Every structure is written in C-alpha cells, then in structure tokens.
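Below is one protein, fold included:
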Amino acid sequence: MISTRTVPNHVAPEQIFDFDIYADPRITADVQGSYAEVLKDAPDLFFTPANGGHWIVRRLDLILGIVKDSEHFSTREQQIPRVLSPPLLIPLSLDPPGNFAYRQVLMPKFSASAIQALEPKLRYWAKLLIDEVVKNGACDFSHDIAARYPVSVFMELMGMPHDRLREFHALACSFFEARTEAEFAHVVPEIHRVMGNLISLRSRQPGDDLVSHLLSVEVHGRKLTLDEMQSMCFLLFLGGMDTVANVAGFTYQQLAHDVALQQRLSAEPVLIPHFVEEALRMYGVVSNPRIVAQDCERFGVAFREGDMVLCVLAMGGRDDRVNNNPNVFNIDRPQRSHIAFSSGPHVCLGHILARAELRILTEEWLKRIPTFHAAPGARHKYRLGCVNALESLPLQWSTA
C-alpha cells in the first residue's frame, strides 16, 4: 500500500487542505452537515495528504466535469488509498465505451416500468418490517429498518436466501470499512464466494431473478463469462446491501427532529416524493473515486497520471452556488440540484429503485408512526469513507 501521508511535487502549497475521509475528528453524526462546515474554507478542488494523498472535489460543476470526463479521469480503480490488486467491478470499473454493453443488459431490470411492477413487493417489505416494531414504541431505525428494508428488496431481486440477511449486510459493510491490502484480501474473496455459489445455484435452478437474467443474456454476441458474472454480481451486492440503507438512516435522523414536517407529510403524502428528493440532495452518501489516466491541466490544477481524485457527491447538493441556503432542509424548494447518483456514463442504474424504496418506506412508516423523535441522549454511531453510513439511530414514539 502507498504511504498513508503523501504530498507530491506537482501539488502547490495553496492547494493543500488536510482532511481524512475516514477519520477526520471534526466530522459528527451529522455527517453531511459537518462535512460542509469543515470544507467551507477549503479550495473547491484540494489535495489532502491523508490516506496516500489524493484530490477532493466539493463543487457541483467540478464534480460533473470530472465524472463525465473518462478520458482523463478513469474508474478503473476505486480504492483510496490505492491497493495493488483492486477488485474489478463491472460495469463501474470499465471506462466508456467498454461499460456500455454491460449496463445495457442490466437496464431493463432497473427501468421505470420494472420498478413500478416491483412496488407491491416494496410495500410488502416496508409494512412487514414496520409492523414488527410499531407496538414497541421504539427501535433502532438503522438496525431494525434501514439495514433490512432495502436489503430485503435487493435479496429478493437477486434470488438470495433471506435468512442470511445480517451476514450479507455485515459482509458489505466490511468491504466499505476495508483500507489495507490485508483487509481487502479477506473480504473480497468472501463476497466472490457468496456470489459464486448463487451463480452456480441459478445456473442449475434458474428463476425470475437478476442472476438468472444475467445467465441468459448476451454481450457482444456471446454469453457472459463466469468472471464477468462474478464481477457484475460483486458490484450489485455492494450497491444493494448498503447505500439506500445509509441514505434512509441519515434522512430519518433529520425527520426525527422535525415534528412539523412529520405531521405535514402524514397529512399530505403527495409531498413525500419532494421529501425524498430533498433528502437525496442533503444526505447523499456515496463519493466517486477516480484515477487520473493521463497528465492534464484541468480546473486550474495540474493532475498527474496515477493521482486519485474523490468527488464528494453529497457536497454537490450542498453547493451554495446552485442551491439557496443549502444546509436547510426544505421540501418546498422551487428548484434543487444534486448529484447523489453521480452523472454521465456511470450514473447509478438503481436510482429509480432507490427513490421508490425511500418513498414507499416513508408512506408506510408515517401511516403507522406519524409522530416520532430521536431517543434522548442516545449516541448515533456512524461510518466514514467513500460510502458514509449511519449505523445507529434509536427512535421513540407513543403507542397510545
């Protein structure tokens, strides 16, 4: 692994701002809010010597400029700090046009019509999980709801055994917590083993699931190889097991402190899609790593081949140049701009599903629990990194 603190010669002193994406002591359980506060005095595009040394981008227009420029900023490596043998995540690790054919075979399963057909299942899982806690008057939302609802939906979509939900979710979290060669060497083969077993099962017993779909499609006039299947399922596993759960956690941490908004959404559920969109603007969790593919001068910065660049997507939604009062949660904004699902050739295929999950969860939650609050004095545990997470959110409500 590369040295943990590095400033190369091509970085100017005024471009340096010391910030640790994994353990900066200034970040609190209000992860996105404290992020914005810490970085408000940093350059729009700066270099931090932490974690091997890398660039960080916090402005929406600059993020868009990088994620859409695969000629100079490649997705072939996704780890900060860099590791010697980064996992291949198809189609994410492939620059265009190499990723197009693989995205094309996945797109039908994540289209608007496909997600609309899934809505009864989304509502079933939301009702089931909320009904398990509603009579208790309390739950840890992150553990009992957020870490189970989108994961249950994903596991059904993939044809995975539901009795291993906690095991698989913990495995995905271990990947996002990994920093070193040794940690990746432990978790990556384990995910490959889990998905390999599923591929093997579905090759013998095909069903109406995403893995069976991948076994049946063709790319470039041929079936997917086992390695390609493994790589695609690896990426689907990471996305389905963790990201929507994290957005839901941060969103309900916000909602728990706004009783007036709870009451308004309960009375006017038609506003819930606006609530979801504002939550995505305020509480994005994913940052997009890129590796510089060739020396270039962009945005006033001299990038060198091999530099790592992290586009903090959540800060794009907090950009005061495109959103007025960006740190205020306001579902009535006449317009809002965010990039929670990235953009360009690698925009997240699951964005329609994610929005539907958050909307339906909120509809069903507020039907049963129209007023709730955060448990007084409880600690909200969180995880920092390229995918931020709220791991604990104790909530309480009246059962009268």
User: Anything to note?
Assistant: The longest strand covers residues 287-292. The first helix runs from residue 31 to 39. The chain has a mean pLDDT of 95.
